Amino acid sequence: MVIGQGGPPPISVIVGGKRYPVRLSAKLAQSIASSGLTVENIAARIQEHVAGGGTPRPQKSTHRTGIVRFGGHRSRPKQSVTVDAPSGERFFARYTISLVSLPSHKSLQPGTLERRLKARVFILELSPTFSGEKLAPPASVVEQYRANVFKALRKSEEAEHRTYLDRVTALGESPVPDAVALRGLDLWRSCVSRSPKGIFLPVAGATDSGHLIYTWDAKGIHLEAELADGRLTEWYYQNDKKNDIWYENTDEVPVLAGAAIREIAEASTR
Amino acid sequence: MKTTAQGPFRDAPIPFHDTPLPDDLTVFRVGSSVRIDKETRPGQETHIALIAGGVVQMTTADEKGRPPHLSMWCRQLTTPEQAWLLLGGRVTNDCLYEFVVDDVRAIRIDPNKWANDLKKFVDLAMASANDEDRSNFHARLMKAVYEPMDVRWFDTDAKGPGAEGHAGVTNLDMERDIEGVFGDRLPEKKASELKGIWTASRKQLRLGLARAASGRITLSAPQAQSAHEAEGEVNVGSSSVAH
């Protein structure tokens, strides 16, 4: 499907059994269409290689030696490391890292879909392999990339969240008060800094009464924070498997909430 | 007014104000995706959209109902398009969530989790009710705390085809009543603690209700518009009409 006609179509990429929808702005869709690329191509390529080539291969042949190059920016000399990795990972090591190298929050704006998408995949799929022995690029380099990607993604996500908050404070009926939106942004930042991998974000919503609600939820574990004007933030946690509930009314992020976010993030990737 | 498979009201339930709906009917609530951020966030499921978007929270108009109720529409008497028009035909009302009546009634506060907290809540509230008729007060409080949610018919001010299918979920949230219970008779810290217990127990009910939602259908404005044209002019209720 060549996009850019009749509005951007919904596409998604499945990584690790989870579906990651990708939304394109009309401008980006037009830009991709004019470049001859199709969104489905991009998604299919990523999908195929996440799955290790799409075709089952003998275990022995799925491990090949490849070269991962880090750096490449004029201010940072290239470094090469020989790694032994499954072909799918090698693909990502080669493509993702080269494309996501030295990201900035500007380079990850919605106008650069491929980088953004691959940055997500990089974090979701490749990060764990770097801690293994088989993939052993210099730890400092990996950390630098990881930190860059996290920082850039957070800035980009925060910019998106600010846009959302601007939108709900301008709703015609029952808008969210500015003071609540500001508290919401603080809470969002605090919670994101507590989330593992830096990209496990809450779903935010506004109620008809002008309240803001942030929700984390996966596999029967639920955490929510409700912000309303003139009231303390209401935290509520429920874990059905452990038959556990706690609640607290405070504008701080409770210690238990940080633990809950990590717990839910883990559950969501299981 | 419970129906069976052979019951007389199965195909045409007859709504009477403030009477329960038959167990096997389906009700739906209209919501708005505009209020939800990252609507397509990975892993997001229907119930998260309901919680985040406040779909299972009563609006101001809902709270003013007597008794307060989360406004719904009975699928068997009101079509989504009719509900959309009765709610004012707003383009932003673009989501529809369905609930089976029996499922809603089955939602309970977990007694093992809340028994002690709620007993403390009731005891303290009773102790603070010096000036009230204790028996009435106690009955009201016990109803608010322990009575499960119900789905009942409620008349609506909105006029037009499908208006007779208006219903509501009761006993979901009586926060204002509860605040009124305490007044300034309790120390601020104690009142805050008790309100916390109350609020959290309501959140458990809301989460249960959100999880009972059987699906989500996106209402399209043009589709509703065509219904509008087909049915002629509809007198839309005032802006106080609840969702």
Salient structural properties:
heterodimer; A: two-stranded antiparallel sheet; globular; disordered N terminus; B: 243 residues; six-stranded antiparallel β-sheet; 9 helices; 12% strand; disordered C terminus
Would you spell out the secondary-structure blueprint of this structure?
The complex is a heterodimer of chains A (270) and B (243).
Chain A: E1 11-15, E2 18-22, H1 26-34, H2 39-50, E3 63-70, E4 79-86, H3 87-100, H4 113-130, H5 139-169, H6 178-194, E5 203-206, E6 212-218, E7 221-227, E8 234-239, E9 244-249, H7 255-269
Antiparallel strand pairs in A: 1-2, 3-4, 5-6, 6-7, 7-8, 8-9
Helix pairs in contact in A: 2-3, 3-4, 4-5, 5-6
Chain B: E1 26-31, H1 46-52, H2 60-64, E2 69-74, H3 80-86, E3 95-100, H4 101-105, H5 111-127, H6 134-146, E4 150-153, E5 166-170, H7 175-182, H8 188-211, E6 216-218, H9 221-231
Antiparallel strand pairs in B: 1-2, 1-3, 2-5, 3-6, 4-5
Question: What can you tell me about this protein's structure?
Answer:
The complex is a heterodimer of chains A (270) and B (243). Helices cover 43% and strands 21% of the residues of chain A. Chain A has helices at residues 26-34, 39-50, 87-100, 113-130, 139-169, 178-194, 255-269, and strands spanning 11-15, 18-22, 63-70, 79-86, 203-206, 212-218, 221-227, 234-239, 244-249. In chain A, helix 3 (87-100) crosses helix 4 (113-130). Chain A has 2 domains: 11-155, no CATH class; 170-269. In chain B, strands 4-5-2-1-3-6 form a 6-stranded antiparallel beta sheet. Chain B starts with 25 loop residues before the first strand and ends in a 12-residue tail after the last helix. In chain B, helix 1 (46-52) runs antiparallel to helix 8, helix 3 (80-86) crosses helix 9 (221-231) and helix 5 (111-127) runs antiparallel to helix 8 (188-211). The model of chain B is unreliable at 1-9 and 231-243 (pLDDT under 50). By secondary structure, chain B is of the alpha+beta class. Chains A and B meet through strand 2, helix 5, strand 5, strand 6 and strand 7 of A and helix 1 and helix 8 of B.
